[in-house]
Amino acid sequence: MSRFILFLAGLWLVLATLHEIFTGRAWIWVIPGVSPPAVFAALPLLFLLASAVLKRHRAAVAGLALAAFAVSLPSTGFNFAALWRAPVPASEGVPIRIVQLNTDYWGQMRDGTLTDPRDKDAMLAYLKALDADVYLLQEHMTRVGDTAPPVTDLSDVEAVFPGYEARTAGTLLTLSRLPIRAHEVVTSDAPRILQLPPPPYALRVDVDLGDQVVSTYNVHMPIQIIIEQD
Length: 230
Known about the structure:
single chain; alpha+beta; four-stranded mixed beta sheet; three-stranded antiparallel beta sheet; 7 strands; 33% helix; elongated
């Protein structure tokens, strides 16, 4: 049993190390990456408690447990700095409500495996009910064969969101009922890795909020795993 516990503790140290290396860098790690933070804190603790009752390999199991905890500390959710740092009081400001949504081909009606049919009118009604000051919407596009051209007709948006200003960049759409001061496309030197949608992938819109300007960033992020059939 002691040898088996030693093997499990070593295996967990390897997995915890791989998690810190590949999270956010390798698409396949999105699957183990859904593990809750409590796992990375609880398992090393269990191995540490188990080492206390082992007759053999006690020090090795304890060392592996402590090493695994240290390696995966960023994933545990612990913030030890909160123990000695005083909270910074938030300054009073003007409240702003921002909604972000990937509209999935602008709510285009199509069937999908393990997904609900899209309904653009229902989507727009839902967004309207949220009563946001700023909407950051992605995939303002439609599927045409193997392409996804941006939607250029804003009449549906103007009908549902009167009084809002719209700024677009490719398939990105930002709506604001706050005055828009400026906007620009945010580019990157990184190579394009997505087939769809076409670039650009980030739109900055500056809005007036009382006596200050707030910059919003509308960003399209790729879905790493898609369980769907065309």
